[in-house]
Amino acid sequence: MAKHVYCRHSTEMEVPFFDVDAMHIVWHGHYVKYLEVARCAFLSEIGYDYNEMARQGFSWPIVQMNLKYVKPARFGQKIRVDLAVVEIESCLRIDYTIVDAESGVKLNKASTTQAAVSLESGEMQFETPESWLQAVKRHPTFEAV
């Protein structure tokens, strides 16, 4: 059964020199940064960035992350991070595909799961805050289940 996708977003960037290792390919840990750049761009687009999360009384730590390396990215390569928001009610789960921006060749697949945590009590929330749901529903690509 296919996952429902609530929203989609894409972010392009160029691989900087300081992200490559001695083999002249992107060091594996930098892919996490590329996910974060794309996620932050999406959150800014819906007006619910990390500062807004805190204003609403929540932090959203990563509680799970998975990455599958398919093909290495290289210095100067233009890459695109396509994200799909696949869960919004109990957590924020995003699936990512990193591709070569020109050819579309897949470089990496990943997913992250974030949970809302009350800044006041420090307790994890089992339902996402209403402020989050309203923000994500405003995204132009939002599709309800």
Structural summary, described in words:
With 145 residues, the chain is an alpha+beta fold. The protein has a single domain, classed as Hotdog Thioesterase (Thiol Ester Dehydrase, Chain A, Roll), CATH 3.10.129.10. Helix content is 21%, strand content 33%. It has 3 helices and 7 strands, in the order E-H-H-E-E-E-E-E-E-H. It has a 5-stranded antiparallel β-sheet, covered by helices on one side. Strands 2-7 form a two-stranded antiparallel sheet. It is globular and about 45 Å long. The two termini are 14 Å apart. GO terms for molecular function: fatty acyl-CoA hydrolase activity. Belongs to the 4-hydroxybenzoyl-CoA thioesterase family. Keywords: Hydrolase.
Average pLDDT level: 95
List the domain count as a whole number.
Answer: 1
| Structural category | alpha+beta
CATH domain topology: Thiol Ester Dehydrase, Chain A
Strand order in the largest sheet: 1-4-5-6-3
CATH level 1 name: Alpha Beta
Q: How much strand? A: 25-35%
Low-confidence stretches: none
**Total beta strands:** 7
Write the layout of secondary structure elements.
Layout: E1 7-14, H1 30-45, H2 50-55, E2 58-59, E3 62-69, E4 78-87, E5 92-100, E6 106-114, E7 117-118, H3 130-137
Antiparallel strand pairs: 1-4, 2-7, 3-6, 4-5, 5-6
